[in-house]
Amino acid sequence: MPRRQLRMTGAADCSLRAALRDLRTELDLPAAFPAEAMAEAEAAVRDPGLSAHEDATGLPLLTIDPPASTDLDQAMYLERRPGGRGYRVHYAIADVAAFVRPGGALDAEAHRRVTTLYFPDDRIPLHPTVLSEGAASLLPGEVRPAALWRIDLDSDGQATATDVRRALVRSRAKLDYAGVQRRIDARTAEEPLALLREIGRLREEQELARGGISLDVPEQEITGHDGSYGLAYRAPLPAEAWNAQISLLTGIAAAHLMAQTGTGILRTLPIAPDGAVARLRRSARALRVDWPHHVPYARIVRSLDPRRSNHAAFLQECTTLLRGAGYTAFDHGELPAPAVHAAVADLYTHCTAPLRRLVDRYAAELCLAATAGKEPPEWVREALPALPKEMAEGTRRAGTVERACVDLVEAALLEGRVGELFDAYVIDVGDRNPATGTVHLRDPAVVGRIEGGTAPLPLGERLRVRLTRAGPEARTVLFAPA
After folding, report:
1. Cα–Cα distance between 462 and 185 in angstroms, integer?
2. Quick one: pLDDT at residue 199?
């Protein structure tokens, strides 16, 4: 989904604004919160349930998010353990359950929405902004309720002990990825922040040893430009990957806590079938990516440079092995099959974004109960059977919104240019019809479907293409071989 909100001004953007409004209507997305849900949220802000929270406001936490973000789910503090025995990760996750009454109107609306939905010009939040961008958000300088994780790592970055408890926390600073990267690269970051690279790299090595993968696929990003909009390709910064490793670490630790107690909900992904891997090896040969047979998939992925066109195309092909992810609930001691997330190469759950994703609130409660040696709350147990289907539907809707928004911005950006020629790279070719596929334009940063030719498309090769369809009314772009 777009990582930055697009601020559109001026008459030039009127058609796009109107198309985005129409899109929200056509997709039948949630609008304003019901009055009863808003009343519950406002009452919870005035009187949240904080009696079970310890005082951890002395912990100098910080957040790392995109600059415009105000729905801050996570804050961290990293330190070395005494005697050089490894590291300690303190990770505070917004305690949404302190504000949402189980079975109430606000809870019911969260189950209807499932996730926050992002648009270039707006967002549809999972919770009212009085919570998600206010009383529940880990904003700097504000005392907030949190599920406070403490995970000890050895000198190799392997987790050795996990604890989570309810606490009141106060973030000291709101940082952004680019600023963090500059400070770390310039060696001006003080140790709590400098440890992000050290721990992040160790966790990346642990991921590689497990056979896990993280794909640095260049992303399309909707950007503001001279009061209007544009599209650019964006490669994630190393600091984002290191930050993601802290979240992955917590999700793995949470999943293992659930497995130990026999009750939980996991994020699962089946292992890709041999045929899919064989197809990927054929793509590697076509794209001139050297993949020796003795080199595992996880290692070849880490050797790729997304700035090289053939590597970027291969990374796009790699995403086919990540299809089929879902949520699986279990109770009474039996783990689901499969239980492992193939890309993480371990047990894994979503628990670090409760302001924006419904399931994380339930995962937090299960882990808090497990650490305290208690049975999960009954309201959590009652919700578990339905959660996988709810999350699947909500995730599918978020994906539809994400793709529709990018398609619409691409179409609006290229309005009036039908018939023009562009330089592109072929990044995907249809299995059944190799004369159709997907092309990646360098400028503007557009990814679109190509069809209309008779010859098989040259996967990974540069190709001159002609724009055949565009504009807000079309809501998509289409190319043909020139």
Report:
1. 34
2. 98
Count of beta carbons in the 10 Å neighbourhood of residue 45:
15
Alpha-carbon span 341 to 323, nearest angstrom: 11
The Cα 308–Cα 412 span in angstroms is: 28
Query: Measured between alpha carbons, how far is 419 from 306 in angstroms, rounded to an integer?
Result: 30
Tokens of 443: 């400028």
Q: Which structure tokens are listed for 121?
A: 């010009």
> What is the 3-state secondary structure of 345-396?
CECCCCCCCCCCEHHHHHHHHHHHHHHHCCCCCHHHHHHHHHHHHHHHHHHH
**Which pLDDT score, from 0 to 100, does residue 204 have?**
94
- pLDDT of 8 > 50? The answer is no
pLDDT tens digits along 359-408 = 999 999 999 999 999 999 999 999 999 999 999 999 999 989 988 888 88
Chain CA centroid to CA 90, Å: 21
| Alpha helix (H) residue ranges in 114-190 | 129-130, 177-185
Distance CA 124, CA 401 (A): 11
How many whole angstroms separate alpha carbon 412 and alpha carbon 408?
6
Output the six-digit token pair for 451: 């069809």
The SS3 assignment for 50 reads coil
